[in-house]
Structure formats: structure tokens, C-alpha cells
Amino acid sequence: MAVKKLKRGVALVGAGMTSFGTFPGLNTRDLFVQAFQEMRASVDKGFDPKDIEALVIGNYSSTMFEGQNFMGPYVADAVGLTPIPASRVECACASSGLALRQAIMTIGSGLADVVLVGGLEKESDLPIARVTDVLATASDSVYENPAGFTFPGLYALLATAYMHRYGATPETFMKIAIKNHENGVLNPKAQFGARIADIMASKQKSAAKRGKPVPQWDSELDFLKDDQANPAIAWPMRLFDCSPVSDGAVALLLVAEEIASSFTDKPLHIIGYGQGSDVPTYERESLTSIKAARVAAEQAYATAGVKPQDIKVCEVHDCFTIAELIAIEDLGFFKPGEGHKAIAEGLTSRLGPRPINSSGGLKSKGHPVGATGAGQVVEVFKQMRGEAGPRQVPGDLNLGLTHNLGGSGMAAIVHIFERRQ
Ligand code: COA
After folding, report:
1. Which one is catalytic: 181, 317, 340, 367?
2. Do 251 and 3 meet the contact criterion of CB atoms below 8 Å apart?
3. Which of 103, 152, 210, 249 could form a disulfide with 31 if both were Cys (CB 3.0 to 4.6 A apart)?
4. Does the pLDDT of residue 113 top 80, yes or no?
């Protein structure tokens, strides 16, 4: 593969986000204003918003979630940025990963020096059945959707294929959920800031308070195997294998590398970038790997000139627990079929040799789909600058990676960040 690189370097100098969760009464614009304010405060040396030359936002479906199809200029107006060019891009759950890529290309081409990137989604105003339908429009409307596939169903398909091929069991998926809830507890922005053990205790307390029989579980795994506590959504994906329905917004500030030092002494240089696509699930040669992600990772490693083992901190797209398992193999951290053993050994825990999803991942932090890719970048920004507080991953985190999937893996976007000081 010929490696084609940007004409000039791009750096990330600011990042902010709302909490992820459900926020009745707030729309995506309200949320984006909050994220923008936090991003502004994160730029160490400050900046004048008048210096922003373009806005690119990722949004999957405000059209169906909140009746707002056309978005870019409305969002620009909400943060006082008109009349700059303001665009919205869509790539299902990778919408803001794509927004980041488009912003990088805008600066890399020389068209602008300072670009604001956003991600936003407001899902919780609709009832769950309708949310499921809206999300399912990211699946194939000719064959998958009419056959009854929802997103939990599509990822259940990948999970059963992986179990069949490599001998993994549902316990592997449960261990991913346990780990990501452990990490999410340390993230004040997470939708589920509770360990599974805390959730068990609260269910027991609530049953006792209501005078009902108090359920007993020996361990978190015991709880997750309980069909009542953790029902199947689409077997083998149970409730705790799914990311939740979320609202949220994220704002990132990108600048041309040569002016980064006037914004901060701790810029992150975006040295690797890749994007891939794939065919629908029913046409794939394999369901245990996502080709779009392998292609995106290959491009990102090649443009960055680094190898998987060089990466110190990494956020992957765990919309369902199986997606995290496949991601750590597609990114080259573990060989195909070995990821489930690594998870069983705890290698991907926050303090392990290959920390994955220190933020809590989509599972625990939340998954407002259009905001997710940019949200992953916020975590890498904080971790690599040593600003992640109690969830700080130890060590010299000079290289970080984000992996953002669209739909069932029809699209994937990977970025690699470098801290040079
Ligand atoms: N993980 C763990 N617990 C969850 C959860 C999740 N993903 N979603 C909801 N819960 C909990 C709630 O906190 C609540 O707990 P409580 O009874 O102790 O208060 C309980 O489950 C019921 O919550 P509710 O909001 O009624 O759940 P729901 O049945 O409406 O939704 C799912 C559950 C799994 C169907 C929903 O989260 C979902 O569709 N997730 C997947 C989203 C998706 O497909 N995204 C795109 C990915 S590509």
C-alpha cells in the first residue's frame, strides 16, 4: 500500500465534552455549547474564537432523533461562530471520527489553520423501540433490517461467530463489561459511574427496601450470568454487553502544527490517520474480524511510522463487548483468536500491559453515537497529557490511538496521536 501523507502536520490543542447520559430538556446545540466551553478552558494559553476558520461536526441522526436535519450553521451559531464554513458529516457511529478526519484534511491541505471539530447526538427523547429503529437505519435496509436485525442482533452475529471459531465463551464478554465498568467509575463524565458490584449491591438494597426476596450473587460474573439481572438482548449479547442509549457532545480544537505552541506547550500531534469501509455482514468472508478496521489501522500505522506494540493508550469502539474483543485483534495488539485469552488474563485492564478503554469505553462512559469518536479523543488527550486524574494510566504515554466504528463495521476510522515533550 502506498503511504500518502498530509502536506503539513496537524495538532490537537484543546478538548472538552459534556457528561454522557440522558439530559431531558436539552438539545444537541445546548450540549455542544457546554462542550465548547470546556474545550475553550482546556487550551492552556487561551485563544480567540474569532481565530476559528471552520467547523466540522459529526452527527448521525438528529434528523430522526430531534427533527433537525440541517445542522452545521445552527451549531456554529450556537457558539457564535457564523459566518465561518460549518459542515456536518455522517458516518453512523463513526460520524465524529470522520469529522476529525475531515478537519485534519482541511488543515493538512492548507485551507485553514484553526478548525473546530464537534460530535453530538441526542437519543433519549424517543422511546427505546424508536431509538432501536433509528439506530437500525445504519444497517443494510435491503437485507439486514428487513430480516429483523437490530444492532444488538448484528453484533450478536459476530459474537457467535467468534465463539464458534475460537472457543471463547460468554464469560469473555462479561469480563470486558466488568473491566469497563471498573474504569468508568473513575470517570466523572461516564453515564454508568458504578462497578458491577455496586450495581448488585444497589439492587439487593432496593429489593430489601421493597420487602421483596433479596437476590444473592457470589460474584460479578454470577450476577452477569443471572438471566433476570442481566437478560439477553440478542444472545449472547446481554444487557451488560450493550452500550446504553445516550446524549452528549464533544468539542476539539485542531491547529496547524507550526502554530500549536501559541495555544499550548503540550500539543498532541496527529501523526496517524486511516479510514476503511467494508461490505454488509451477509457478504463478508469472515465475521470474526472487521476488514474496515484492519485497513484503517494499517493506514494509520503506516502514516505514523509506528507499530501496534508502540501504542501506550488506546480507546476502542466497544458498542457491544464483542466489538472490543475484535478491535484489539484488528489493531494488531493480539493475534486473531488470542484476544479472548488476553482478556481472561486481565492484560487489557487499566493497570495491565495493554490498557484498553481507560475512560470506561462506550459500555460504561456512554455512546451518543455522533459524539463517540470525538469523545474517545478527549480521553486520549487527557491521558497523554497526564490529566486523567484517578484513572490515569501509568507510564510515559507518548503514543495514543482511537478506533471508531460505523454501523456493523461498514466503516472504521483510526487516529494515532503523539506527545513530543
Ligand atoms: N448496560 C447496563 N445497564 C443498562 C444498559 C446498558 N447498556 N441500558 C440500560 N441499563 C439499565 C438501566 O440503568 C436500568 O437499570 P435500573 O432498572 O437498575 O434502573 C435498566 O437497565 C433498564 O433501563 P432501560 O433504560 O429501561 O433499558 P432499555 O431496555 O430501554 O434499554 C438496551 C436497554 C440494551 C436495549 C439499550 O441500552 C440499547 O438499545 N443499547 C444498545 C444501543 C445501540 O445499539 N447503540 C448503537 C450501537 S452500534
Report:
1. 367
2. no
3. 249
4. yes
Residue 194: burial class (beta carbons within 10 Å; 0-12, 13-18, 19+): middle
Respond yes or no: is residue 367 known to be catalytic: yes
Cα separations (Å) of 184 from 295, 315, 365, 366? 29, 13, 6, 9
Alpha-carbon distance of 283 to 181, in angstroms, equals 34
What's the confidence (pLDDT) of residue 3? 83
User: What percent of the chain is modeled with pLDDT above 90?
Assistant: 99
What does the alpha-carbon distance between residue 118 and residue 87 come to, in Å, rounded to a whole number?
A: 10
Q: How confident is the model at residue 310 (pLDDT cuts 50, 70, 90)?
A: very high
For residue 83, is the peptide bond before it cis, meaning its omega torsion is within 30 degrees of 0? yes
Measured in angstroms, how far is the CA atom of residue 129 from the centroid of ligand 1? 11
Nearest to 362 by CA among 191, 136, 129: 191
- pTM here is 0.98
Mean pLDDT of the region 347-369: 98
Q: How many residues does the chain have?
A: 421
| Integer Cα distance of 420 and 85 in angstroms | 31
Q: For residue 56, what is the enclosing H or E element?
A: strand 54-58
Q: Whose CA is nearest to atom 29 of ligand 1?
A: 128
∠ CA 51-53-57, nearest 5°, is: 120
Task: Return the residue matching grid coordinates 478527549.
Answer: 378
